[in-house]
From TrEMBL:
Annotated protein name in UniProt: Ferredoxin reductase
Species classification: Bacteria, Pseudomonadati, Myxococcota, Myxococcia, Myxococcales
Cofactor field: FAD
Pfam families in the cross-refs: Pyr_redox_2 (PF07992), Reductase_C (PF14759)
Provenance organism: Cystobacter fuscus (strain ATCC 25194 / DSM 2262 / NBRC 100088 / M29)
Domain Reductase C-terminal: 329-412
Amino acid sequence: MAERIVIVGAGQAGGELAAGLRKQGYKGHILLLGDEAHPPYQRPPLSKGFLLGKVALSDLYLKPLETYARFDIEFKPGTRVEAIDRSSREVSPRDGSRLAYDKLVLATGGRARPLSLPGLEGTRLENLFSIRSLSDVEAMRGGFIPGNHLVIIGGGYVGLEVAAVAVQSGLRVTLLEAAPRLLSRVTGPEVSSFIERIHRERGVEFRLSCEVRGLELDEARRQVRGVSLACHGVPERLEADLVLVGIGLIPNTELASAAGLAVQNGIVVDEYACTADPDILAIGDCANQPSAYTGGRIRLESVPNAIEHARVAAATLMGKREPSAAIPWFWSDQYGLKLQMVGLSTGYEQCVTRGSVEHKEFSAFYLKDRRVIAADVIGRPAEFMAAKRLVSSRAEVDATRLGDVAVPLNSIAA
Ligand code: FAD
């Protein structure tokens, strides 16, 4: 068994792995290196309760700082690893030191995709934000002043969650989305229009099928003053006090590719979280893994995936072989309404809704070949476990019974 495991990236996956190794009885040295100032923390509240001021900083931490010492985990915050030397099995942090490993785990997550507009390259704008880290939220919070106009570029989950928090904080919000509907890559039109409705009810304005053409800057080129856009080709200018860019994530794979490891939309790993180098593993948002659910390869960006992938890696490092059979799932919170998603709806043939869209309590089931391949469960958390079972069992279902709330969901697959 490895004597010294080095984990690069002290986020959700890295933190779970370090603790998981100790829980599984690993007795060797664990070194957890993170480039942020904090111990591993949960990112979901960054665009929800933490931004709203309802979740304290210490409640974000996966474990209190002192737990790492208690678990005999050497944790080094503020330590950015710049290179891997595979021949000597060492990593080099920015300070020039060299740290030896027997097994190395890359848990480097990703970074927010920047807005790419001509003329903006290299410009740092004080009121243009993205949210990936605690420091991003701390920087943006100053602009959360009632009456300020927030323009959000990107209608994915992060953009929508920030929109919800912002209107609840008294800001005016306009959200710009390039596609004709919200969340178009992950949900069906029924759920997209529902999400749009709950936001419009609270006063969020939308521009769909919208192309962002440019940002208007102040004379000093330090602040955004307005956003130029075109919806269906019709030009418009919106004044902006602050702008949030929520257009996706770029996986942090540079360390791996510089070390000669395969990278293809993430660091390529097998079902045991191993790269082609038997001493290097990769987990979480940065890793592209085989999926028992899709039968192909997948890179997921979710807490359940980070936790499951850390479990798989801990087993591998303990000399066991425990591939993941987990189904992708995710949750979001907007205006206190819980949205839970399981499976991937891409390629569905029929959407069956169950419950009341009107009363904001319904599930949307996505069917292909009469089987449920994915489900969005909204305001019906009690139904989520059964929905997960339907997706994982791949049993044939009767669409009429599925849509009938009088028929218990548990009995449908039977
Ligand atoms: P991360 O948590 O990003 O951790 C990676 C860490 O590695 C970071 O600290 C990074 O700074 C560090 N790092 C990178 N490179 C280096 C280096 N060279 N040296 C040292 N350290 C390095 N998921 C859900 O399931 N539900 C949600 O509701 C949800 N909401 C979210 C809201 C927001 C605003 C964000 C940003 C994410 C949300 N997610 C949500 C996604 C979820 O948080 C991620 O999938 C999860 O954090 C992935 O864990 P990870 O460890 O792979 O990456």
